[in-house]
Amino acid sequence: MNYNYRYRLRPSDAIEERLAWTVDTCRQVYNHFLHRLNRTDDTSAYSEQNLLPSLKKWWNDLKSVHSKVLQKVVQRLYDNLSTLRGRKENGYRVGTLKWKAPGEYRSFTYSQSGFKLKNTSGRTRLWLSKLGDILLTFHRELPDDAEIKTVTVKQEPTGKWYAILGVETPDDPPKKPENSEKCVGIDVGILKYAHDTDGHAVESLNLSDERERLERAQRDLSRKEHGSANWEKQRKTVAQRYADLKRKRRDFLHKLSNYYATEYDLVAVEDLDAKGLVELPGNSRNRAGVAWGTFLRMLEYKCEREGTHFVGVDPKDTTKEYASCGVKTDKPLWVREHSCPSCGFEADRDANAAWNILSRGIAKRLGAGRSESTPVETALPVDTSVSAKRVVEAGSPTLKREPLGER
């Protein structure tokens, strides 16, 4: 399997200057080949990479950049072009690739060679060809059998440098269980971030203080003269405030997704169009702030890593449909209790939605995993054969916030 590990770099002043120079040189190479792309027909990443040795004969600065780094710059250009074409084929209105100005190009990548991790006197350093040894905060060990395939060096808007190590492990992910004994359905929201079928209700992360500090820093930035020393200093402050908010949100999402991926055999969630929901009028800021799309992506890859079934279901009418009898009831968003007009049972709105999600997830899993001759009844997992009706009749679970597992 392939993983990315991110570490903070702590370069000396001299190395930091060389890193910044390398980034800017890569930016110029990117612009050079973009200029050729716009004026030359029938080009490809491979044909353009073959021009790099001849380019070094008159562009002497390129001799101070590792060859694999320059090749990845060209590959990056054509990857961007491929993405642009793909979006156009899918019906999106797209423009053209833009010239990269200083500050818009922040990273470069080594692949296959030109890098090595060293441990000198108990301190881990990253050796990069043409740059030298760089001290890094090695806060998490790599797997024993992992092989480093790529190293990406990136400068964040805050000015801090990071190394992203792309590693590959020979082991395949754990095999997913045939009979999913521990299953859970999760309904995500804004006030209650996650409400599952086991009765766990996790409140949304309160980032109001961090958001207020960010807005105050942005107002201060707007009063500075653009491009001045004070403006640049305040810009870094704004970037740091945003990084703090982003770090706390991702930490919360990592812990929550890790909890569900490690504690259950099957996780059923709504297959939400997070981007489309954000674009809807009204309450867009809160929908963007809870980062449903990020949470679902984290949950999906962690379920794959842990050998857990991840099932996305159609979100239509999960809050309107009663989990026991299937009767639909229209209700405004402010109504938080679900009352069935058919059988009269009442339940928490989010809990009812979570049960519907789990029922649909189990049905989808069985439909995808069994053969044509296998009846649904015999294919049901042992602990999930209980219908949603029997779960509901057992009583509405007590809502509580459970401690989450570590990442």
Overview of this protein structure:
By secondary structure, this protein is of the alpha+beta class. Helix content is 41%, strand content 19%. The chain has helices at 13-39, 45-49, 52-55, 67-89, 208-222, 229-263, 274-279, 284-289, 292-306, 349-369, 376-379, 388-393; strands at residues 2-10, 107-111, 115-120, 123-128, 132-137, 147-155, 161-168, 183-188, 192-196, 201-203, 266-270, 309-313, 337-339, 346-348. The strands form three sheets. A seven-stranded antiparallel sheet has the order 2-6-7-1-5-4-3. A hairpin with a 5-residue loop joins β6 and β7 (161-168). α1 (13-39) packs across α4, α5 (208-222) runs antiparallel to α6 and α6 packs across α9 (292-306). The radius of gyration is 26 Å and the shape is globular. The model is unreliable at 369-407 (pLDDT under 50).
**Radius of gyration, CA atoms, in whole angstroms:** 26 Å
Summarize model confidence as the mean pLDDT: 82
Structural class: alpha+beta
Outline: globular
Poorly predicted runs: 369-407
The count of DSSP E runs of length 2 or more, i.e. the number of strands, is 14
**Largest pleated sheet:** 7 strands, antiparallel
State the helical fraction.
40-55%
Put simply, the count of helices is 12
Spatial separation of the terminal alpha carbons? 18 Å
The H-and-E topology, N to C, reads as EHHHHEEEEEEEEEHHEHHHEEEHHH
Taking strands numbered 1, 2, ... along the chain, how are they ordered across the largest sheet? 2-6-7-1-5-4-3
How large a portion of the residues is in β-strands, by DSSP E? 15-25%
Annotation keywords:
407 residues; 41% helix
